[in-house]
Fold this protein.
Amino acid sequence: MRCPFCASPDTQVKDSRVAEDGSYIKRRRFCVECGSRFTTFERVQLKDIMVKKSNGVVVPFEREKLLNSIKLACKKRPISDERIDKIVSSIQRQLETTGEGEVSSREIGSLAMEILSSLDIVAYIRFASVYYNFDTKEDFSKFIEKIKKEVLDEKESDEVLTKSYDKCSLDTDFSPTKKDELF
Ligand SMILES: [Zn+2]
């Protein structure tokens, strides 16, 4: 493993730890050349996944990218990093076992939104609002109406959604992300 700071091939493993659920091995590494420390993760990958974007371009699936998108959507929500990591692993595993070597960005988006919708409504709305790339507030309101029927109990829905909507409109951290940057 090359050092990410100075590109020297001379790095050493200082410590290896298997995750509690055995899903990955975390290694602390040390660069002999520049003294930097960094961490690598070893995970099972059943096969390479290629993602077909909405514009037709095909790119390799990047776990980190999806992880960061979901992390952003879950920002300040009561969802641990460990949980998010498991969500991404679950999506990745489902993509690997679909049989196709190539998946559409739509499939990844659907999987992510399916999980988020049952996990946290605010995270779901944030993710979906970028994924669907609403042009107008009206489109966004239509979407809110739709999930109101799908996801929420009528009694509490109005209050929760009004809060969520305010959060989304105020959340400048997540809003500039473009759909194609999500995963
Ligand atoms: Zn180095």
